[in-house]
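To the team - S-adenosyl-L-homocysteine complex, inputs and output below.
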Amino acid sequence: MSTRAEQLRALAREVKGFMPDDEGDALTQLGREVGSQFPGGSWLEVGAWCGKSAVYLGLAAEETGCVLYSLDHHHGSEENQSGWEHFDPDLIDAADGRLNTLPHWQRTIARAQLEDTVVGLVGPSVTIASHFATPLDLLFIDGGHGHEVAWADYYAWTPAVRDGGWLLIHDVFPDPADGGRPPYEIYLAALANGFSEVAAVGSLRALRRD
Ligand code: SAH
Ligand code: MG
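Output:
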C-alpha cells in the first residue's frame, strides 16, 4: 500500500499541465514548510488550468490543515488558444467552441479527494482580488504570462501576502532565451519591494515577505 502522499504525487504526474516533476515536488515541500509555520492558513494560486499544481500544493495543505484557493477563469491564456504554442484541442468545449479547463480541474480535484482542501475560484484574477480580503500565508502566481496580465496579478495579489508569508512565482527565466520576461520582471519587483528569496527549483522561485 502506498501512502496518501505517494498516491497524490503519482496522480499529479498524470494531470495535463506545464509543471515539471521536480518543480511540482518542490511545491509540495515548500507548502509543507509554510503549513507547518502557519497551520490552518489560507493559500491561493493564480492559474489553475487542469489542477496539476493544485494537487502538489493541495497535498501539503491537507497535511497541515490549510485551504488552497485555486483561481482561474478556465478559458486559458493567450498562448493556450488555437494556433498558439500550447494549444490542446481536447480542452475545447463542444457547446461553444471555447477552451474550458474547469471540468478537467474538477475531475482532478475529485479524483484526488481534495474537495475539502482545494476550493475553486472561477473568474478573472483582478476582479476576484479586488473583493478578496483574506490575508494569505502562501500566494502562487502562475497565471497569464503576458506583460499586462502578469503585472496585473502582481499588483492585485501581492498586497494580500501577510508579513512572513510566502510568494511563489512560476516560469521565472533570467535568460530570455529560456522564456518570456514578465514572470522574471515581477520576481525582480518583489525582491525590490520587501520580499527575499528563500528557494529556487527550475523556473520556480520562493520568496518570503520580510
Ligand atoms: N498552475 C497551473 C498552470 C496554470 S496555466 C499548473 O501548474 O497546473 C495559466 C492559467 O492562467 C490558465 O489556465 C489561464 O486560464 C489562467 N489565466 C490567465 N489569465 C487569467 C486571468 N486574468 N484570470 C484568471 N485566470 C487567468
Ligand atoms: Mg507555469
